[in-house]
Design goal:
The chain has a five-stranded antiparallel beta sheet with strand order 1-2-3-5-4, covered by helices on one side. By secondary structure, the protein is an alpha+beta fold. The radius of gyration is 14 Å and the shape is globular. Helix content is 34%, strand content 30%. It has helices spanning 15-26, 33-54, 86-89, 106-113; strands at residues 2-9, 60-68, 71-78, 116-122, 126-134. Strand 4 and strand 5 (126-134) form a beta hairpin. It is built from four helices and five strands. The chain has a single domain, classed as 2-Layer Sandwich (Heat Shock Protein 90), CATH 3.30.565.10.
Length: 136
């Protein structure tokens, strides 16, 4: 098993760093272009959700990854507001910030690109998104 963990400030400019860090971690497995793009898209959405919806101002985002054989797992976690209603938040087009022209498609995109997406959240304590992908 191979593992990686990073923490960074919840700033929009760090979204691309998160995507690159996770894809760099995966490189030794020589994933298909499609798998790599799927994972990068899902990570981008999860990190963006943490930055935009997890905090009002400042905070921290944590990413933890594991690879065992061809099974990849990534957790994206924030320690912010939490999600009041996870089922509602997972519905397409739902957003807590319509004034910022958010599409409300983050969870839908994550679910489309990954094999499995789990969401756990506690009000005022944060949200953890755990995603799985079998590498081809």
């Amino acid at each position: 098993m191979n593992k990686m963990e990073i923490k960074f400030d919840a700033l929009s400019q760090n979204e691309s760093f998160a995507r690159l860090a996770v894809s760099g971690f995966l490189l030794y497995k020589n994933p298909s272009v499609n798998d790599m793009e799927d994972i990068k898209m899902a990570v981008s959405e999860a990190v963006t959700n943490s930055i935009i919806h997890g905090y009002d101002n400042e905070g921290t985002v944590r990413i933890y990854c594991e690879i065992e054989d061809n099974d990849f797992m990534v957790e994206i976690e924030d320690y912010g507001k939490g999600i009041e209603n996870i089922e509602l938040a997972r519905k397409p087009l739902y957003t807590t910030k319509p004034q910022e022209e958010r599409s409300g498609m983050g969870f839908t995109i994550m679910e489309a690109f990954m094999d499995k997406v789990l969401v756990s959240s506690e009000k005022s304590k944060g949200t953890k998104i755990t995603m799985y992908k079998e590498l081809k």
